[in-house]
Amino acid sequence: MKRVFIDGSAGTTGLRIRERLSARGDICLDVLPEEFRKDASARRDALNSCDVAILCLPDAAAVEAAGMVENPAVAVIDTSTAHRTAPDWQYGFPELKGLREKICSSKRIANPGCHASGFIALVAPLVEAGIVARDERLCAFSLTGYSGGGKKMIADYETAATPLHAGGRQYALSQNHKHLPEMAKVCGLDFEPCFSPVVVPHRCGMEVTVQLAGKDMRAIGECYADYYSGSGMVSFAGERSEEGFLSSAAFSGRDGMEICVFGNPARQIVVSRFDNLGKGASGAAIQNLNIVLGVDEKTGLVP
Question: In this structure, what DSSP letter does residue 280 have?
């Protein structure tokens, strides 16, 4: 039985990972008593005595925790933004070609950002196929459930909502969203995209849309169908919709991701739908954990 320690299990992502791993018979969760949760010595001991440490911490605290790990046998999965573009950390999106094998042998894995996961799943295959040029100036937007904002935002929507909470609320208006660096780097883009994230009034679910022009829709579809054939948790669904609509809540409670393409010869959109706390956070961390442990990567997940 493998031992897993979650550092920061009181947050939204950490709580969900802990809840899901608690039900598994192949994993022993190392849990610090509440009085030792912020004790540096106790945390250091826990981080160095487990098989896999999952960090669910703010960026600075994640850097500190990763620095505490001195045991070379311990694998670390960091769910923060801190290490996603670091050269000595492996980016944890196994559906991208060649990454599953690298994750399997890595001891430092950076879990992708939620918005970034949807964007990268859409753009990376098109860049690799030459359908999207590396120097294209892309535009994208993302609809996300409010649970992605953590406990305060959840409380705002569920106990202190104002009339403004009833509609979509765009944020990161200065175009400096923290996921932009990994979006550009992992996709091999020369420029970060113009990106508009929007919080919508449902708890979970995410829908990322990238806008294109003058592309061959058939070539895009064939690219996705080939790229994600037999993939882990990402599937291509063509032009599937709900009677002409696409709900950002469609994958709430699931860990898979669905990709679609729509449009006409002049203008196209490619869309990814998933759960911001599933494939966008805890589900992705568990998928990476499964790969590191050498078990079926879908163990404990809901496609």
Answer: I
Query: What pTM, to 2 d.p., does this model score?
Result: 0.97
CA–chain centroid gap for 128, Å, is 21
Amino acid found at 164: L
| HEC per residue, 203-229 | CCCEEEEEEEECCCHHHHHHHHHHHCC
Structural domains of the chain, with CATH: 2-112+280-293 (3.40.50.720), 114-276 (3.30.360.10)
Strand 194-200 and strand 206-213: the pairing is: unpaired
Q: What is the pLDDT of residues 130-176, one digit of tens each?
A: 999 999 999 999 999 999 999 999 999 999 999 999 999 999 999 99
Contacts of 126 (CB under 8 A, 6+ apart): 132, 220, 223, 270
Burial of 113 (C-beta count, 10 Å sphere; 0-12/13-18/19+):
buried
* Residue 260 annotated to the active site: no
DSSP string, 11-68: SHHHHHHHHHHTT-TTEEEE---GGGTT-HHHHHHHHHHSSEEEE-S-HHHHHHHHHH
Catalytic residue among 114, 187, 204, 260: 114
